[in-house]
TrEMBL record:
Signal peptide as annotated in the record: none
Top-level taxonomic group: Eukaryota
Record flagged with keyword Iron: yes
TM spans (from-to): none
GO MF annotation: an example: iron ion binding
Protein name from the UniProt record: Cytochrome P450
Family that this chain belongs to: Belongs to the cytochrome P450 family.
Cofactor(s) in the UniProt record: heme
Residues the entry annotates as binding heme: 247
Keywords: Heme, Iron, Membrane, Metal-binding, Monooxygenase, Oxidoreductase, Transmembrane, Transmembrane helix
Amino acid sequence: MSVEAQEYRKVLDEINPHVGMASLYSDHLPVMRWLDVFGNKNKVVAALSKRDAFLQQLIDAERRKLDDGGIGPSSEVEGKSMISVMFTLQKEEPQVYTDTMISGVCASLFSAGTELTLAVIEWAMSLLLNHPADLKKAQDEIDRSMGFSRLVAAEDLPHLSYLKCIISETLRLYPVAPLLLPHQSSTNCKIGGYEIPSGTMMLVNVYAIHRDPAMWEHPIKFRSERFEDGKAEGLFMIPFGMGRRKCPGKAMVLRTIGLVLGALLQCFDWDQVGAVEVDMTEGAEEFVMPKAVPFESLCKPRIAMSDVLKML
């Protein structure tokens, strides 16, 4: 892990424990917003200031690279960093694509690429160890698709349909942001018969939607096959939100999860510790829903992949 990645990971570890706590008391007692008795608000603000300073350093470094004759705004998009692409947009619409906006997009993508991704992979591996037939089926699909001479690559993911089903079913059962991000009503509106004033904070209970028995058959059971052959098409699932406010890192997260999970299944055989089912208790101390009991397993390299593993 690079020095920059370690630094950003450290900042995230400072932010996450306080995100939920910052509003826990003030939602019930609004006066607490001003008093901040437990200091959570100040801790969040301080951690966010560190994050913003870190991201601004990245933006400034990329700008210096362009000024020194690196990949310029007129170059093809392919081969440019995301920040460079946004610099191109900044030249066209400077009032929209400010450094603050670029920093915000980077924060969303980086957070999605670390905390959310790791949580989904941990839930997926826990589910697969408790459902070994699904794990074996995914391994067989990977073996048929690419053999044993190379690792799963990004171009392979569209052809690994059962792996995609496993990821979808994991996100259905354990959406890592179970209430998404808070939204705010921009005008007075009515939802489900309730009058919602403008400026009201609104939360979407994705966890409940994904387990609604009126929509999903056997909603609390892990059944990857429910997503096969488009059978779940039309059913409401929004682990990344929806519309123009949905997570901008969705594509990156799904791609990363597919590559990491695919490589883990391709290269190793997995088993439970002591033949005991993996504990699926949900943690609730942070904004991202982690496992209450960290994932543990036994694994050993697959003999058929030994040559590939030796080259890593």
